[in-house]
Structure formats: structure tokens, C-alpha cells
């Protein structure tokens, strides 16, 4: 299988829960296939992380009521801490930081800097030394933020209340089409809160509120409400109010014009008119009042710099249509259209009057209205020999590059597919079954090539045969979607779940945190471990019927809080 994606983009700028009833499983009768499960690792013994409290979610496959309790393994390395061109900030981190500005969420991110003024709540993002419109693209819910005003500040700034932020994804370096950007410096993509940020799996309605304040910095109040009206309709609405008091220095002197007020409101609707289709519409209204410009300290002559009473309003309207079904190899598209209007109204309240900056009492306005769209579609098709060239030829390129760079070790991913229709369970690394697909044959070829490179060039290599990996934020769509996220989404939407066979096919399900731990262990394992392949699984067989019962029981239990 391979895939081809087509992306089109363009812009035009002008200056508490309720119970739910779950449908039964739908079984499609075909010939059952017995899947192999992994044998317990014989050579590399994982070192478990520190125990966590039982109230935290387990990282094992969903357990039946009678199953013994299992201690979870926390993720050893968050995605935001990995060395790469992409950094992420998720809701858990945002809750810990309690930001007053979006910049608070970007401090410490590799290659990312921010520019701010104490007399303006706007933020400018700098990625690897590049900044402003055309170099760094800032998008909120897929909408470009193009506001810029030439002056004693960054030309490209955006306005966003941090209490609205759900996730941040930052891509460093030139990107041709991600988020329809075409930026040469990078992209900072903000996603705002939605239904899933208020409701847990299985919950039908709920309210999320937050109140915090002090005599030093001010306070913030937020309230968001969400409801899953039906499996095909969801609503979300809420608002925030923030008061930022003027800053006081170490001598308790007030720094003038460093306070501001921000009010926001948001509403979103998600609709699923047909299987695979989702339409999401949203609106965000941001309004801030502040005074910009810094006067001279007390006791000095009147300020020469202009000082303005300022009101800034940012309105964002979006509409997104997505379609994805595993059985549709022709269409898998995402289309988004948006309008973003940022307007700043200023009245001069102090400073020297002239025809350029205006006289006291004069008003001026800056407005940029952006209408844009982006659309992409992925078509999947069989490539025959090309797939082999990519899977095997690409792996040979990796081995050659590692040899030329004198890399100390290569840890590579292979697959449990090399066991094929193995009749013995658990399977051990020494046994290879009858492979049932070209993909399995390619993975086995990679293992052989890794052994040849080790003997010929002395390259240390360790292969990891992944079994059925699952974990948080796993994509339920696409041609290679795993069964767990696909069933979870189907049950939440009141749609049928399909099993090919009698449901007694067994699989070994392994959490992604264990896979990460296996890779880290392989990278630092003793030299005696190299030149081998290892199973990465739990060594426990779970039938699809049993898995379905676990998932349905777990989702039903989440409704009784």
C-alpha cells in the first residue's frame, strides 16, 4: 500500500453525566485466523518505572472485571521533550503551567522565542531566528493570523486567550503545505477547546469552570459547557474574563500601562451527517482593553511618546468538513474555510501632538480581515514493486547512512507479521512462520539485511518485532487503523463494530509506552544484546470478542460518575 496526498490552500487578506446505551457487536462470518502472540522477552528485561497511584489510568489492554490489577508504566518521554523538528504542548501541561499569556506555553521550547510588550497583550513568535508574516505562520483552529502593524513592536502578532487553548503544535523549519502555510521559518498551530476537553468518554454533558486570582496579578474566570446531544451532534460553548493588574517592581512601584482586561466567547458545533463524515463549525470572539505606550517616570517632563487607549477585537469563524473511512481508498479529505478579522481602535490620550501620530483626542484604526481555505485529500493504492523498494530499499539506505556516519548502533522496527499463521503460542524469536503478505516478507528481509551489515561492516543493530500497539490519541481512521481506537469511536457514536471471523481470533496488545521503553532499552543495552531481534508484546492472548466486552464495559462504566 502507498498513499498520495493532494493539498490546496489559499488566503486573501484585507487591510454530571448521563447513561448511554451501547449497540451490540456485529459479527461478519469469515474464516477465522489465529494470530500469534509474543513470548516473554528472554534476553532484554524491561526496567519498570516508579509506581504510580492506582487512580491513574492503566497502560495495559482494557482489563475485564475479574482480571488482576496491573501497575501502569508512565510515558518515559513526552513528545514535547524529544529532539526533533516538532514540539507539542498538551492540555495536561497547560493545566500545570496556568499561563497568563500564550508565550508562557512556549518558553523552553527548542528554537522558539517570543516577543511581547508589557503594554500590549499580543504575542509574536520567532522560530529559529525568523519572525513575522511570511516567515512564521501562526494558525488558530486552522485559520491564519495575519495581523501586522509597523511600529516599535513586532510586525506580526496575534491575540489569543490562553484559557481557550487546548493543544499547541510547533513545526520548525520550512514547510510547504502543512496547515496550508508555506512558511519558511515554521508553523505554530493552536487548537482551542472543544467537547472532548470537557467531557470524558461516555459522558453526555458537563461544565468546566475555573476561578483564580490574587491582589498581585489580577484574576481569571472561565466557564465552558459541552453536550453530546446524539452520536451525530455535539455542542460546545463558553467564555473567559481576565483582569491583569499593572506590574509592580521590586520597590513596589507601579509600572504604568502594564495592565489589561480580556473578554472572550466561543461556540462550536460538531455534526456527523453520515458514516465517515464530520462537519465542525466554530466562532471565537476576543476583545481586550488596555493602554499602550510608556510615559516617563514621575517627576520628569511630560512624555513625548504617544500614549493610546486601545481596544483590540479578534473574530474568528471556521467551518471544517472531514471524511475518512477505512474501506474508501479513493477519498480521505479535510477541507477548511475560515474568516479572521483583527481590529485595533486607538484614541490618543497623552504625548506630543503632530500630524503623523495625531493630537490628543484623535482616533485611529488598524484592521486586517483574512478569508482563507485549505483542502487536502489522500488516495491509497497498491504500488507493487515500489512498496518493496521503499520498505527494503529505504531500510538499506538507513543501514548505509549509519555505516558511513560510524553510528554506534541502529535500533529498527520490524513486525510480528513475520510469524504469519504461527500455530504455537507464545511464539519465540527463533521461530518464523509462513508469511502471509508482501509487507511481512519485506520486514523479514530487513532483519536479514541487518544481520549481513553486522557481519560485513560490524554495525550494531537490534530489531524489535512490534505486536498490536495501542495508546492515547491513536488515530481511529485510515487504512491501517488499529481495532481498539476504531471500536472505541464506533461505540461512542452508537455505530456497529465489525469482526471478521468468529471473534475468537487472539492478539497480543501492547501499550505504546512499553514500545517506547523497549526502544530506549535497546539503545543502551549491553553489546551482548546486539545482532538479534526481540518481541515487543505483553505475552498475553486476548480474543477479539473478549476485547470488545472489555471496551464496552469500560465505556459503560465511565458513564456512572
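^ C-alpha cells above, recovered residues below v
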Amino acid at each position: 500500500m502507498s498513499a498520495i496526498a493532494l493539498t490546496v490552500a489559499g488566503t486573501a487578506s484585507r487591510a454530571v453525566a448521563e447513561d448511554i446505551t451501547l449497540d451490540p457487536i456485529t459479527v461478519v462470518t469469515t474464516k477465522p485466523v489465529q494470530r500469534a502472540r509474543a513470548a516473554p522477552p528472554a534476553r532484554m528485561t524491561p526496567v519498570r518505572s516508579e509506581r504510580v497511584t492506582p487512580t491513574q489510568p492503566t497502560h495495559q489492554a482494557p482489563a475485564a472485571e475479574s482480571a488482576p490489577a496491573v501497575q501502569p508504566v508512565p510515558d518515559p518521554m513526552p513528545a514535547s521533550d524529544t529532539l526533533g523538528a516538532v514540539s507539542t504542548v498538551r492540555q495536561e501541561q497547560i493545566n500545570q503551567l496556568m499561563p497568563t499569556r500564550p508565550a508562557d506555553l512556549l518558553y523552553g521550547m527548542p528554537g522558539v522565542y517570543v516577543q511581547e510588550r508589557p503594554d500590549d497583550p499580543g504575542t509574536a513568535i520567532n522560530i529559529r531566528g525568523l519572525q513575522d508574516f511570511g516567515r512564521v505562520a501562526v494558525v488558530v483552529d486552522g485559520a491564519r493570523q495575519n495581523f501586522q502593524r509597523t511600529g516599535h513592536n513586532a510586525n506580526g502578532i496575534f491575540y489569543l486567550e490562553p484559557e481557550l487553548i487546548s493543544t499547541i503544535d510547533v513545526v520548525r523549519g520550512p514547510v510547504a503545505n502543512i496547515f496550508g502555510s508555506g512558511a519558511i521559518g515554521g508553523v505554530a498551530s493552536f487548537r482551542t477547546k472543544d467537547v472532548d476537553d470537557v467531557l470524558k468518554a461516555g459522558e453526555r454533558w458537563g461544565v468546566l469552570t475555573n476561578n483564580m486570582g490574587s491582589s498581585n496579578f489580577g484574576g481569571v474566570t472561565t466557564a465552558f459547557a459541552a453536550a453530546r446531544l446524539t452520536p451525530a451532534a455535539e455542542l460546545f460553548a463558553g467564555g473567559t474574563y481576565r483582569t491583569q493588574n499593572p506590574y509592580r517592581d521590586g520597590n513596589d512601584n507601579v509600572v504604568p500601562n502594564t495592565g489589561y482586561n480580556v473578554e472572550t466567547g466561543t461556540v462550536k458545533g460538531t455534526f456527523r451527517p453520515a458514516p465517515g463524515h464530520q462537519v465542525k463549525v466554530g466562532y471565537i470572539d476576543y476583545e481586550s482593553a488596555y493602554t499602550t505606550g510608556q510615559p516617563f517616570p514621575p517627576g520628569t517632563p511630560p512624555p513625548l511618546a504617544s500614549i493610546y487607549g486601545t481596544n483590540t477585537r479578534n473574530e474568528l469563524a471556521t467551518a471544517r468538513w472531514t471524511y475518512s473511512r477505512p474501506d474508501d481508498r479513493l477519498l480521505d479529505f479535510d477541507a477548511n474555510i475560515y474568516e479572521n478579522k483583527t481590529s485595533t481602535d486607538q484614541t490618543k490620550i497623552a504625548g506630543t501632538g503632530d500630524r503623523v501620530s495625531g493630537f490628543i483626542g484623535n482616533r485611529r484604526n488598524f484592521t486586517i480581515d483574512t478569508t482563507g481555505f485549505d483542502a487536502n485529500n489522500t488516495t491509497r493504492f497498491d504500488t507493487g514493486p515500489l512498496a518493496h523498494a521503499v520498505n527494503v530499499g529505504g531500510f538499506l539506505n538507513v543501514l548505509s547512512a549509519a555505516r558511513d556516519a560510524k553510528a554506534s548502533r541502529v535500533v529498527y522496527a520490524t513486525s510480528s507479521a513475520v510469524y504469519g499463521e504461527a500455530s504455537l503460542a507464545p511464539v519465540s524469536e527463533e521461530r518464523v512462520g509462513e508469511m502471509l503478505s508482501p509487507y511481512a516478507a519485506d520486514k523479514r528481509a530487513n532483519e536479514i539485511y541487518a544481520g549481513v551489515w553486522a557481519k560485513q561492516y560490524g554495525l550494531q543493530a537490534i530489531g524489535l518485532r512490534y505486536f498490536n500497539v495501542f495508546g492515547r490519541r491513536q488515530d481511529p481512521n485510515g487504512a491501517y487503523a488499529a481495532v481498539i481506537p476504531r471500536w472505541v469511536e464506533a461505540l461512542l457514536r452508537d455505530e456497529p463494530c465489525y469482526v471478521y471471523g468468529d471473534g475468537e481470533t487472539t492478539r497480543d496488545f501492547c501499550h505504546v509506552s512499553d514500545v517506547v521503553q523497549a526502544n530506549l532499552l535497546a539503545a543502551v543495552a549491553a553489546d551482548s544484546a546486539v545482532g538479534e531481534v526481540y518481541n515487543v508484546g505483553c505475552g498475553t492472548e486476548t480474543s477479539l470478542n473478549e476485547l470488545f466486552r472489555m471496551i464496552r464495559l469500560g465505556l459503560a462504566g465511565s458513564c456512572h460518575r
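The chain has a mean pLDDT of 79.
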